[in-house]
Amino acid sequence: MTKTLIRGRLLSFRRAPQHMADRDSYLYETDGALLVENGLILAVGSYASVKPGNEEVVEIDHRPHLILPGFIDCHVHFPQMQVIGSYAANLLEWLNTYTFPEECRFVETAHAERIATHFFDEFLRHGTTTAVAYCSVHKTSADAFFAESARRGTRMIAGKVMMDRNAPQGLLDTPQSGYDETREIIESWHGRARNLVAITPRFAITSTPEQMEMVQALAREFPDLHIQTHLSENREEIDFTCSLYPQAEDYTDIYARYGLLGERTLFGHAIHLSEREADVLSQTGSVAVHCPTSNLFLGSGLFPLKAIQRREKPVRVALATDIGGGTSYSMLRTLDEAYKIQQLLGERLNPLDSYWHMTRGNAEALSLADRIGTLEPGTEADFVVLNSSATPAMALKMQAVKELHEELFLMQTIGDDRTVVETYVAGVASKPR
Ligand code: GUN
Ligand code: ZN
Fold first, then answer.
1. Mutate which of 86, 91, 241, 291 to test ligand 1's pocket (most atoms within 8 Å of Cβ)?
2. 222-275 tens-digit pLDDT
3. Strand, coil or helix: 193
4. pLDDT digits (tens, 9 = 90+) for 370-394
5. How far apart are CA 322 and CA 133, in angstroms?
6. Per-position DSSP letters for 296-344, written without gaps between them
7. Of 282, 301, 406, 420, whose CB count within 10 A is highest?
8. 420-425 vs 383-386, strand pairing mode
């Protein structure tokens, strides 16, 4: 297969930047190139050093644009594309009034397949090449999602939601069927194309203790799989949850009692944690997934991102849109809202830190940094091309920009899908037109 040489300005993080002047934390090549073959990055560096001497290559010139690793979104709901922007007072009203009825529609395979097409179009249009997704309770919704992902060649992590109470009849499985169908989905899809399956109990409110035992059984049988669920998003939710599991010390302890904490566990939101809960997440290496646009939209609270990372026992953090509680598919818009939440908490979230989060940081949170989230040789060739002058307003501001960090900050502050010139999936240009 012919190799492809992709030229542009390259930015890729080596580790989390400690401060804005932490130049060693990232690779930045002003005239850089990526050599790509068979979906992998073969070489990265200056154009002059990477361009093969006497070999035929297809060359694509993206100068003066920036090339970054594809964005990673660590928490989204595939069946909620038509829930975005639903008017509700809080999480539980939003779930009961709009979200659960909408998810019932995914019992229809044709509907799930149609929305799956839109899902991949929208994520790739916004530069996101990996998402960690909740499907609906229906096995066929996961089949539709993974089949579309296989067609697109994307690295996706997803699972059929397990939920057996406190929701409409059309959205309930049983402890046994949730277990059986999750196993079937693992057999069909885990490791097929670039798909990975996550064990996905929705949250403790919608799972009986019997179902949680089945989740625990799955987690024991498949220790390499990710587990995703929700934790401490909203005060009413926390009170209701704890009333359902009176033996547990707190919300986190419910999941702990079923052996669900660990380095592959992703807890959506985790806003209102006690010190004890944060300690337990830290000790187990569990990940708190910050969903800023959703937390603001649903009025859930201000996630203490910087404070939780600064603790003596820091908690691992990932970043996500939480579509459809979230209000934008764009990880750039998500960074903007994350920044504003830290502002309200009197904290600084610098742009290098932010861009690390949505690329390598999220890959590390998923324990996948050896495959995605950087431009390092040997990793998968998922990357985005960004134009910091994509709109007249951006072009005007760019006239005043001198430093890389200012350019990054501009794109996260007023950029969106228009900023994304191209999205490469496994080395193939894949932004829908
Ligand atoms: N908690 C349980 N289910 C959901 C969901 O679909 N969205 C959000 N934001 N929180 C949840
Ligand atoms: Zn969620």
1. 91
2. 999 999 999 999 999 999 999 999 999 999 999 999 999 999 999 999 999 999
3. coil
4. 999 999 999 999 999 999 999 999 9
5. 9
6. HHTT-----HHHHHHSSSPPEEEE---TTTSS-S-HHHHHHHHHHHHHH
7. 420
8. antiparallel
